[in-house]
Here is the input.
Amino acid sequence: MSDAVHPGWAVYDLDRLLANLAAIRGRCAPGQSFIAALKGNAYGHGAVPVARALDGEGLAAFMTGSFDEACSLRTEGLRTPVVMFAGALPEGMADLVRTGLVPTIVDRAGAEAAARAAAPGEAAPVYVKVNAGLGRLGVPLEEAEAFLLDLAAMPGLEVQGLYTHLPFGDAHGRDWAAGRFAAFDALLARLEERGLAPPVTQAGASASVAAGLPDRSNAVCVGHLLYGLSPFTDASVADVSAYRPVLAEVGSRLVQVSDHPQGSDIAVAGSYGIRRGRRTGVAPVGAAQGLARPAPGSRPEALIRGRRAPVLAVSLEHLTLDLSDVEEAAAGDAVLLLGGEGDAAIGLAEFAAWSGRRALDTVLALSGRLAAHYRGRAGGATRI
Here is the structure.
């Protein structure tokens, strides 16, 4: 659909994506490999364009929880293996294995189903997830050693990876995660003593990388930092200023500009009988395109001709702005809700603060609802 028909767009900067990966590499131990988390349509950034940009970067794997997204990656002919996060029932293992995907195993029923799906004389590659303390998914830590010894003796199965997930957002969580990392490291040591050494082991993720937690695994799986998003609710835990948001711009265009003389009613802004004249503009983006209605007490603004214009209202498909200080604004002018114009800029944190949402929730809300454009490596324009 042409931007002139219903103007609204999001711009994703793939050079920032690669710069974030380089910064992550600089924080990790020499020789550690990297897994890119592509779940949630690559955290809302577009799984296929992101994977294309990362495919030549020597990653150990892409990981996603969506079968449809994983199949899209496979049809792209990408060289990086695609691992599925835990979530498939045993009866779904055959589809994963036969599509060339690597399933995650969390119980014996899933392992047996994956082994049955292997081609004659071959072994199905799998990852095993261990619940090291989060309490969500995985083989319980205290059962993992025996479970992996059992899988090692199972024909038709090859354990290529072993991982856990230990996210945290504040200093208390960091201390908890440090203890759980140690417990997972102890499991790896015991497995090595038994002659079991999966090619990929992973416990580290964005929070632990940023906070510098020690880790004996040979890979880290990154999501938040890769996309320039902070994993922390407490900003004092670690400095993440080196990582820039990959979502670089969100914009639309004015489709109408109106003048309202003194005394006019402007019900859309709750101004009945305004005391001075006002000029307003409307852009065709709203809640249906992923924008949030301004939270009480917030003062959202957009950029028009390099100047800030207050947002008066967000409705289902329209954004109304006060153009009193940008009187020369006209239909067709760009409206930037996120991004820079001249010396003025609106960052992701400010844009997300409209509704009190996290930056990640803001990016996810826009995913698939605006025309998506990519600049930098593997750029171009496509809709996600």
Notes: The chain has eleven helices and 22 strands. The chain has two domains: 31-227, 247-383.
